[in-house]
Amino acid sequence: MKEKLSREEVLHVANLARIKLTEGEIEKYQVELKKLLTDVEKINEVEGYDEDILIACWDEFARLRKDEVGNMLDPKQVVENAPHHAGNYIEVPVVIGESEGA
Amino acid sequence: MKYLNKGIEEIHELLKSKIIKPIDLVEEAFENIEKNQELNAYITLNKEEALKTAKELEDKEVDNLLFGLPIALKDNIVTKDLKTTCASHILENFIPLYDATVVEKIKAKNMIIIGKTNMDEFAMGSSSRTSYFGAPKNPWDKNKICGGSSGGSAATIAARDVLFALGSDTGGSIRQPASYTGIVGMKPTYGRISRYGLVAFASSLDQMGPMTKNVYENAVLLNALVGKDEKDLTSANKEEEDFTRWIGQDIKGMKIAIPNFLMGDVVSSEVKGKIEEVISLLKEKGATVDYIDIKYLENAMTLYQIIAMGEASSNLARFDGIRYGFQAENVENIEDVYLETRGQGFGDEVKRRIMVGSYLLSGENAKVYYHKALSIRDDMKKEFQKAFQNYDLIIGPTSVTTAYDLSDPMDDPRKSFMDDVLVIPVNMAGLPGMNIPVGFDKNHMPIGMQIIGNYFEEAKMYQLGSFIEKELNLDLTPGGEK
To answer: Which of B191, B164, B9 is nearest to B74 (CA)?
Structure first.
């Protein structure tokens, strides 16, 4: 088994995770991510896979809330918590336009 | 005069009879924290507000045991108008707009929030060394780690700065630092305490819990934290109970199991020896202790890696630099805001886990890894249930060794998982687990024992924990009695 991921593999998972890596990090993670991914492969050695899954330990409490408007945060405060804002809006850089395909 | 090294009942009486005021306790807490500044236990202190609250309490009736007592909160529990960083650059200046449900409960008891404690970034780690603000130090030996991820909470309790702290435990993050610092740390049953306002790491595993210098005070604090919450639909609807009710009772006839896995070769002989001494004590006092096998425990770390990293990648997707927190500068379009903000804002451990988690949940992998892990986890829960048909409680060591050096290498990404190999199974099954100190190694570093209960049987755990605590009667103040 190879001891590290390829550069492309690291860039692929970084893209899935929406994380920009520096050159140094790419190299480091080629080795480190491989170790973790080797660990999780051990799940294949465990027998007993069936449809019964455990999400929360007590299903009896699983419930849904009524879809009602409750106490909300003050929209003004919420907007002001954003790094960039103007009036009632959160400011963001270009979404569509110049840098299409980014 | 020092008060914060006394028991809470004595302090309560002093407050009630107006011999002392809450502000005396708050001032003492800040003096302690100042004196122990080198421990780096806190990220943010709440001094001005705490003094103000203490003053306001002078006009109120001292109506409960927790009234006027200072408490420290792990910095992943959101506090209105008080910075909450998760020990991350990405939330370095984040000020929440609301209180977590536990914070509301603490305030309802008129406890006083003293500050926010240091931790591993987003609770990912086992030594608190992944904190953006530098690692906290162990009060027993400042060259050692205090464990993690709730390392700052553990350090401040061990140092006797304050009486109470909250931690969170996703894969041992309350119990393991408690074992390294010689304090009591309880991770209650999943669902006992509302997670609303706990910054999510792995939602199906996360649970907050009390960290204290002794068992009784731990149970008293837990009393105040539990309950169903409409804001967390996984919170359990259980009848109110007093977790202290069996403290002081005999353990004669109690049936205790010790899984062979928890006493395996990875556990140091010093730790194992101390646990064996406790086993002898329990037998002598009329309990039965049997070694048993619990299937799947050896797989718990793999399950944890898959479930915790998978859920983390999903939960941490919210940190995009748009709505709150840090945003990278000099970026031209929105995609780059995400990529650069997350690239610059998250530390190493967090990035690794999010990347692996994203891979584990992508496309068909979700079935191969995550879904299978949930299935084996269900099998593991059933195995625990079988054991609890025959036994009241399960015990074992909390950590494989005592606290190691702060300067130990951090280059193995598996290390933080391996440190927690004995505490992870409890989170997998959603069971309650508690650390109690049971002795010291040859360097006088604390050794901890884990008590595991069946669902919602925290009171029984406190019964056994307090019994052992009383029998051993250890001096758990670093540097001797203060």
So the answer is: B164
For residue B424, which phi and psi values (nearest 5 degrees)? Answer: -65, -40
Whether B233 and A64 lie within 8 Å, measured CB to CB: yes
Q: Which of B127, B149, B168, B399 is catalytic?
A: B149
Q: Are B102 and B235 in contact (CB under 8 A)?
A: no
Within-domain flag for A11: yes
State residue B354's pLDDT score.
97
Q: Are B5 and B482 in contact (CB under 8 A)?
A: yes
**Domain CATH number, residue B33:** 3.90.1300.10
Q: Which domain holds residue B15?
A: 8-251+455-472
- Token readout for B349 is 């451990």
Residues of chain B with pLDDT under 70: 1, 480-482
* Phi and psi torsions of B446, nearest 5°: -65, 145
Q: How far is CA B390 from CA A70, B223, B288, in A?
A: 46, 28, 11
Identify whether B176 is part of a domain.
Answer: yes
ipTM for the complex shown = 0.91
In a 13 Å sphere around the CA of A58, the CA atoms on its Cβ side amount to 19
Helix (H) or strand (E) holding B376: helix B372-390
Give the residue among B472, B450, B475, B477 at the shortest CA–CA distance from B177: B450
Tracing tokens 């050096």 back to the chain, one arrives at B405
Instruction: Render pLDDT for B116-147 as a digit per residue (tens, 0 to 9).
Output: 999 999 999 999 999 999 999 999 999 999 99
Residue A6's domain comprises 1-46
Chosen for mutation from A47, A58, A81 (greatest number of chain B CBs closer than 10 Å) is A58
Q: What is the dihedral of CA B430, B361, B74, B34, to 10 degrees?
A: 140
Chain B residues within an 8 Å CB radius of A7 = none
